[in-house]
């Protein structure tokens, strides 16, 4: 049992079998990070927990003496940081699907609230503000809901922006986020459906 980044042994990590014929068997890692369990042959899942680290679930097929090296990653503390991804939607009047890059956005998080504004590589910009359903489950993925806004820059002699908002639902974890608003009606009469912001964390 060790830290993923440094390789330093983790003392006192809790290891438990969570399914299969060995369910309920548990132990803790020693000063050198090693641990041992007396098990019956079969397939099962080991869960490892250690304060300040993401839990690890690892499948094991046990036949005889088996060494399972578990490396744990320090838990992330916030979603705040740099993300990038794609804005996607279908324009109802034409049936045309659009996928446009979001080169970079800065996600903000305060408690269970998250928000961001973004510009795309095309004539679109937007924002979202939402609430995480269960911030303690971000490591595995939690649901989120809130309001999404999208605006379209109309070019011409007198450029203008027309925008609209709608409620979104989605999922978020430490490295990926996806939020979808069923329909956004823009002020200039354009209707967008399946408006989705898909993001991956950069730093």
* End-to-end C-alpha gap: 26 Å
Strand segment tally: 14
**Which band does the percent of strand residues land in?**
over 45%
Strand pairing plus helix content: what structural class? mainly beta
Helix content: under 10%
Radius of gyration: 23 Å
- Report the biggest beta sheet as strand number plus sense, adding barrel if it closes: 8 strands, antiparallel, barrel
Order of strands side by side in the largest beta sheet?
Answer: 7-8-9-10-11-12-13-14
Task: Count every helix, treating DSSP H or I runs of 4 or more residues as helices.
Answer: 0
From the spread of the alpha carbons, the general shape counts as: elongated
- How many domains, as an integer? 2
* Rounded average pLDDT: 90
Order of helices and strands: EEEEEEEEEEEEEE
CATH class of the largest domain: Mainly Beta
Q: What is the CATH architecture assignment of the largest domain?
A: Beta Barrel
- Which regions have little confidence, pLDDT < 50, spanning 5+ residues? none
What would the CATH topology of the largest domain be?
Lipocalin
């Amino acid at each position: 049992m060790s830290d993923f980044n440094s390789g330093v042994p983790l003392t006192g990590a809790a290891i438990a079998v969570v399914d299969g014929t060995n369910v309920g068997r548990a132990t803790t890692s020693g000063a050198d990070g090693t641990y041992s369990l007396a098990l019956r042959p079969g397939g099962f899942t080991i869960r490892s927990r250690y304060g300040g680290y993401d839990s690890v679930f690892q499948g094991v097929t046990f036949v005889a003496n088996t060494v399972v090296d578990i490396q744990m990653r320090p838990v992330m503390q916030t979603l705040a940081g740099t993300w990038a991804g794609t804005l996607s939607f279908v324009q109802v009047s034409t049936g045309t699907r659009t996928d446009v890059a979001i080169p970079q956005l800065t996600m903000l998080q305060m408690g269970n609230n998250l928000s961001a504004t973004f510009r795309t590589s095309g004539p679109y910009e937007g924002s979202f503000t939402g609430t995480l359903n269960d911030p303690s489950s971000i490591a595995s993925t939690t649901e989120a809901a809130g309001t999404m806004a999208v605006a379209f820059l109309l070019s011409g002699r007198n450029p203008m922006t027309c925008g609209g908002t709608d409620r979104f639902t989605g999922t978020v974890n430490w490295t990926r986020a996806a939020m979808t608003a069923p329909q956004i009606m823009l002020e200039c009469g354009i209707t967008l459906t399946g408006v989705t912001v898909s993001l991956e964390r950069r730093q």
